[in-house]
Structures are given as C-alpha cells and as structure tokens.
Design a protein that fits this description.
Strands 1, 2, 3, 4, 5, 16, 17, 18 and 19 form a nine-stranded mixed beta sheet that branches. A five-stranded parallel beta sheet has the order 9-10-13-14-15. It has a three-stranded parallel beta sheet with strand order 6-7-8. The protein has a single domain, classed as Metal-dependent hydrolases (TIM Barrel), CATH 3.20.20. It has 14 helices and 19 strands. 59% of the residues are buried. Helix 4 crosses helix 7. By secondary structure, it is of the alpha/beta class.
C-alpha cells in the first residue's frame, strides 16, 4: 500500500484574474510584516511593501487588517445529504467564507453517512460547486454503527484523509484497535469523538454544580476522559496517529499533554464555544446551549484556554452543527445538541485566547494570552496540516503568504465590532449561541484560489 493516499479532491480551479490586497499586515507561519499582496491566476505573485496596481486589478483594502492564509475548519457538519432543511454544502460554504475559511472538512454523519465512495463522491461534487474547498471525512464504521469497519481503503483512494464516527465515538475498543492498524497502513488519521456512552447515558448537560442546581441529569467529565485514556493506550499499542475531536475538559487535556510529552502521534482540537461558554448558560433551560460534548465548568474553560497556550491543543475547530428551528425549539430533553460556528469562530477565539480575561486554571495557575498570530495558526495552518490539506499533504491550504503559493487568503479585522443576528447568518439554521451578542473581530475579505469570494464582508456569489 502507498505511504500516503492521493491528494484530496475538491480544490477550486484558479480564478483567472488579478487582485491586489492593499495596506495590510501579513501574518503567516513565517512571521509578520507590513506588505501588499499581488495575486494573479490563482497564485500569489508578489508580497512587497508597496505594489503598483496593474490595470484591471481588483483592489481589496486591508488597512488596519491582517492578511493571512485562509482559515481551515477541521470539523463542520454540512448536513447534505439527508438534512438539507438545516444546511446544504452551498449554504455552509457561504457561511465558511464569510467566516474567513477557505477550506472545511465535512463530517460523515449525514443520511446516508459517508461510509462508501458513492456518498463521498456526492459530497465532493457538491463541494466543487461551492464557495470554498470542501474536503470529506469518512466514517470509521459502516453506518457509524460501531459494528464493522467501513471500506477505508476505498475512501482513501479518493483522497479522504480523516476518518471518524463523530457524534458516536467507537465504543468497541477491539474494533478501534483494528481500525487504527488499518489506518496506519493506509497513511490516514482516525479522529475520535470521545464519549463513553455507558458513563454519559441520559445526560443533558455537564455534571456539576449547575446540573445539581437545575435538577438535570449530567454528563460527567469521566465519560470523555475514559475514552481519551483508552485511545491513547491504543495509539501506544499500534503506533497509528489519532486526532481527538472537540475536547472539553481539563482531565482529557492533561491526558493528551502527557501523551505528547511521551512522543505519541496525537493531536487535539477544541471548539470556540468550549473556549468561551460555561454550563451556567443552561440556567434558563435554553436548548440553544445544548451541545455534545456539553458546555463545561469555568475551571474547564480555563483549562481549555491554557491547553491552547501550551501547545496541547493543535487546532480550534468549529463543530458547526446547524439544526432546523423546529428541532432546536423543542424541550431541552428532546432538542438535538449542536451550535453554529463558522461565521463566529475568529472573533470568539480572538476574544478568548488573545484579548479576553485569561482567568485561572483549576490549580490556580494563570492562563497566558496568545499572540494574534498564534490564534490564527490554531485556525489556519495547524488544522490544514492535520487534515492533510497543506503542501506536505498535497494540498493548497495554510501555506505562507509568499510568491508562488496558492492564493487562499483571508483578511481579518481584529477591531471591528458587530452584533450577531440570526437572520443575517448565511446558514439555513439560526442556532447560534452568540445570537444577539456583540463580538469584536470580523472578516473583511476572503480569497479562494485567487477569487475574491467575500469583499467588504459580503459574499460575491
């Protein structure tokens, strides 16, 4: 078998035009500098202090803004096929580019699930006609039922790099070990939704002070921690890489930190809402704040922030989970878990990790603030690397803003303040936890394969 599967499908065709991004601060993995950026035929042509504007060029004002590699979302639920009333690949891609994302990884818990080549090809085809690059994650097991392995080789041949039963962590440890052995041979990565169902059964929110106050059954942190510990042991046994999805509590992050210190090939992501919201949000029994894993305690939020600052966390991923209004307006015990995230990830992460009150961890240790460049890295080049969408993986995302590189770029305004209005979001659904709240930090422009798909905060098609 090959060491690495073919490059992932879904890259947009280069746009045959010229763009100048004028007056911004370029921020990428190589550093920060004041420069204009010239783009032609889908690639960066020059990054210089002052570029003469060619005739016919589209000029994008970046004054006061950061010009960065496009953001990459490792974890988005696009709902198509099967739940188009909540979201489509096209509507999700519109939300993505308005949020600064030039690539998203579509989770496989669709209906039917992405557990075979036919469904993967359907999503890839829909992605090819959308506003950003859409990569596909495949299911680990057939039907995400946790009983037998999906044909991962068939999916890997299409360029699928990540496999997960997201929404239903693989409960059978023996099956997960076989999946890891198989994945190692294919050169792909398994991504685990860490939740032991037997421990979590019946929980509606985090088990703690607030669940006791509200009289609601809780999901203990142990439900997440137990599966993280099990899968770290399986990584040690197999040598296969593992990516941990949307970790939410201090104990899980401590386990990942220890595994990394031991040299194990593990990576981890956290979601914006776990950086900024606590279980206290459920005081009014509002299903808008029901999510899986649940919003945790203030001490867990501090631990998540600290794990981002110390390198334990490799990426901030949205876990964008749209739901039709009639389902999210049901009583708390009936409403599905999930929140929108694509259009608000940048300002939420910026506030929590760079600008916000850093707070204290459970042990009283201060949480350091990240630089703006480090926040962007958690949303851009680092997730691109995990998804195999960077140059090393044969992709075109997350690379430096430099001559010869693909022009997948975003222009981020760190100071612009705006209020989140559900009706103004691009998603077909309105279940944003930030609805009615004021955020600081916005996306001014997004460029995909050289094409300005967002100009001045407005989608162009």
């Amino acid at each position: 078998m090959p060491d690495r599967p073919p490059a992932p499908a879904g890259a947009a065709a280069p746009w045959p035009g010229t763009v100048v991004i004028r007056g911004g601060t370029v921020v990428d993995e190589t550093g920060t500098r004041q420069a204009d950026v010239l783009v032609r035929d889908g690639r960066v042509v020059a990054v210089e202090k002052r570029i003469t504007i060619p005739g016919g060029a589209t000029v994008l004002d970046a004054g006061g803004c950061l010009v960065a590699p496009g953001l990459v979302d490792l974890h988005a639920h696009l709902r198509q096929p099967g739940a188009e009333e909540a979201e489509t690949v096209e509507s999700a891609s519109r939300a993505a580019v308005l949020g600064g994302f030039t690539a998203v990884v579509a989770m496989p818990n669709t209906d039917p699930p992405v557990d075979n080549a036919a469904v993967a090809l359907e999503v890839l085809a829909l992605g090819a006609a959308s506003l950003c690059r859409v990569a596909v994650a495949g299911a680990i097991t057939v039907g995400r039922a946790g009983e037998r392995l999906a044909p991962m080789g068939e999916l890997a041949a299409l360029g699928v790099r990540l496999f997960t039963d997201d929404g239903a962590g693989v409960q059978d440890g023996g099956l997960m070990r076989r999946a890891l052995d198989y994945a190692r041979g294919l050169g792909v990565t398994l991504a685990q939704h860490c939740e032991d169902r037997a421990i979590a059964a019946g929980g509606l929110m985090h088990e703690g002070e607030w669940s006791a106050r509200l009289g609601l059954p809780g999901v203990p942190a142990a439900a997440e921690e137990a599966m993280v510990a099990r899968d770290i042991a399986l990584v040690a046994a197999t040598g296969a890489p593992m990516h941990f999805l949307h970790l939410s509590c201090a104990g899980s992050l401590s386990l990942v930190a220890a595994a990394k210190a031991a040299g194990m090939p593990v990576t981890a992501e956290v979601a914006p809402h776990h950086l900024a919201l606590t279980d206290a949000e459920l005081a009014a029994y509002d299903p808008l704040f029901k999510v899986n894993p649940p919003l945790r305690s203030a001490a867990d939020v501090a631990a998540v922030r600290r794990a981002c600052a110390t390198g334990t966390v490799d990426a901030v991923a949205t876990d964008h989970a749209p739901h039709a209004a009639n389902t999210k307006e049901a009583p708390l015990d009936e409403a599905p878990p999930g929140m929108l995230g694509l259009q608000t990830a940048w300002p939420v992460a910026l506030a929590a990790l760079h600008r916000g009150d850093p707070g204290l961890g459970a042990d009283g240790e201060a949480v350091p603030a990240l630089s703006v460049a480090d926040v962007i890295g958690l949303l851009s080049w680092r997730p691109a690397r995990i998804a195999g969408l960077d140059r090393a993986g044969g992709g075109d995302q997350g690379g430096p803003v430099a001559a010869g590189e693909p022009a997948n770029l975003c222009v981020l305004d760190p100071a612009h303040t705006w209020t989140v209005e559900a009706g103004a979001l691009a998603s077909r659904s309105g279940n944003s936890p930030w609805r009615g709240r004021t955020l600081t930090g916005s996306v001014r422009h997004t460029v995909v394969a050289g094409e300005p798909v967002v100009i001045g905060g407005e989608a162009q098609r």
